[in-house]
Design goal:
Radius of gyration: 20 Å
Structural class: alpha/beta
Low-confidence stretches: none
Strand content: 25-35%
CATH class: Alpha Beta
Mean pLDDT: 90
Helix content: 25-40%
Shape: globular
Number of strands: 16
Order of helices and strands: EHEEHEHHEEEHHEEHEEEEEHEEH
Number of domains: 1
């Protein structure tokens, strides 16, 4: 089962970083967020990836083209240019396809453009800017039981503010930025059947405002409710939050 990662958006709300690099290449703990997402899937045995490129996609191409020599010892024979890479690493066996899907293509259109790399098999998909401790195996099992064309993971985002419980003029509970108790949102981490390709109109079709509402109308969208950790990286503040969690060894998405 292949994993499609949407990595081509402009990331306009994170302009401090995305002026220089695509959002999935913003680093957390010295590694691109894209790597963290791939490590989550790899932990559950999914190691075939299709990366949908767009804005500054050449930086993602270069990262993987040079991955071995950046992360392993190697010997180069000057003149011939032959390179011998030594040892192994934890990402051994990853198969990564780089697919140019256009700078202005919408999310649904990006998935449509990689149809040839998916074939007629069930596949996984997610955004290139969010991490979670989702049990991918459980998600896939849920999808198969429901028998729909698509399953989306619903999550509860963290509040931007601390939460206080007050009684008789005193604080009885203080929780710093807890998850909200109501209101589920689309957290990505999708399971999709190849039949969805027939329902995507083209480059201008969005998953969020096009494909998914149409699937709802046809009763073909299941929802997997994830009660655990989820965090997107839309703003610089959220980038700092993820970095802090990683540096303090409190990164819940580090399931590997």
């Amino acid at each position: 089962m292949k994993v499609v990662i949407l990595a081509g958006g402009l990331g306009t709300r994170l302009r401090e970083e995305t002026e220089y690099r695509p959002k999935p290449m913003v680093q957390i703990g010295g590694r691109p967020l894209l790597w963290h997402i791939m490590k989550i899937y790899s932990h559950f045995g999914y190691r075939e990836f299709v990366i949908c490129l767009g804005y500054k996609g050449e930086m993602i191409r270069d990262y993987f083209l040079n991955y071995e020599t950046r992360n392993r010892d190697f010997t180069i024979c000057l003149g011939s240019g032959n390179i011998e890479v030594h040892g192994s690493h934890a990402e051994e066996g990853w198969r990564v396809t780089m697919a140019e899907t256009g700078v202005d293509t919408m999310t649904g259109g990006r998935i449509k453009r990689v149809q040839d790399y998916i074939g007629r098999s069930t596949f996984l998909a997610t955004y290139g800017d969010g991490v979670a401790d989702v049990d991918i195996k459980s998600l896939v099992s849920f999808h198969r039981r429901r028998g729909k064309l698509a399953t989306v993971s619903a999550v509860r985002p963290s509040s931007r503010y601390g939460e206080l419980a007050i009684e008789d003029g005193r604080v009885t509970v203080f929780r710093e930025k807890p998850q909200v108790n109501e209101g589920w949102i689309n957290g990505g981490f999708l399971v999709l059947e190849p039949g969805i390709f027939d329902s995507i109109d083209g480059d201008d079709d969005s998953l969020e405002t096009g494909l998914m509402p149409r699937l709802v109308e046809r009763d073909q969208l299941a929802v997997y409710q994830h009660e655990g950790f989820w965090q997107c990286m839309d703003t610089y503040r959220e980038t700092l939050l993820l970095e802090e969690l990683w540096q303090r060894n409190r990164a819940p998405w580090r399931v590997w």
